[in-house]
Amino acid sequence: MTKPSAPQRAIDLWSQLVRALDALQPLAALAARVYVAQAFFLSGLTKIRDWDTTLALFTDEYKVPLLPPALAALMGTTGELVLPVLLVLGLGGRFAALGLTVVNAVAVVSLSEIAPAALQQHVFWGALLAGLAVYGPGPWALERAIWPRLQRLANAGASRTPEAAARASTS
């Protein structure tokens, strides 16, 4: 038996590394979901702990464009409490990632002055959210189990509509 050449050994090693990294993708997606969700969820909890302070901040500090301060506070807090739960569970993962991207962008835009470290944190969250929105929440997401069932139900229901029955009778 001949010994593999140096290029072949390098290719084999690279293939092993790629397989190992591919096996880590579900864990990496889950870790990204949990990391980002925790930051936003804890922020939402802080806001509901002292609603009067939250309203004062949205009135005096956060300059959310186009929205009255009370509505901006309610919408922002709701987004910070609901979307992270969806993201962690992987239910509507892309929707949750896109929604948190909006919350993240509004947070940056609404502050007249933001510390460079805080801005960097928002950029990092935005990058993780962009990856989750583009690639999805990964295989360890509840939507992977639920979505096919919903599609089957929708297809079964569509075949029972009067329009579908009329099409079937004319075929």
Description:
- By secondary structure, the protein is mainly alpha-helical.
- It is 81% helix and 0% strand.
- The protein is built from seven helices and no strands.
- The protein has helices spanning 6-49, 51-60, 69-89, 93-110, 116-135, 142-158, 162-170.
- Helix 1 crosses helix 3 (69-89) and helix 2 packs across helix 3.
- It is flat.
- It starts with 5 loop residues before the first helix and ends with a helix.
Largest sheet: none
Secondary structure tally, helices: 7
Instruction: Tell me the number of strands.
Output: 0
Unreliable sequence segments: none
What value does the Rg take, in angstroms?
A: 23 Å
N-to-C CA distance: 65 Å
User: Based on CA inertia axes, which overall geometry fits?
Assistant: flat
Q: Percent helix among the residues?
A: over 70%
- Beta-strand percentage range: under 5%
What does the average pLDDT come to?
Answer: 93
The SSE string, one letter per element, is HHHHHHH
Going by helix content, strand content and strand pairing, the class is: mainly alpha
Map the helices and strands.
Layout: H1 6-49, H2 51-60, H3 69-89, H4 93-110, H5 116-135, H6 142-158, H7 162-170
In short:
This protein has 171 residues and is mainly alpha-helical.
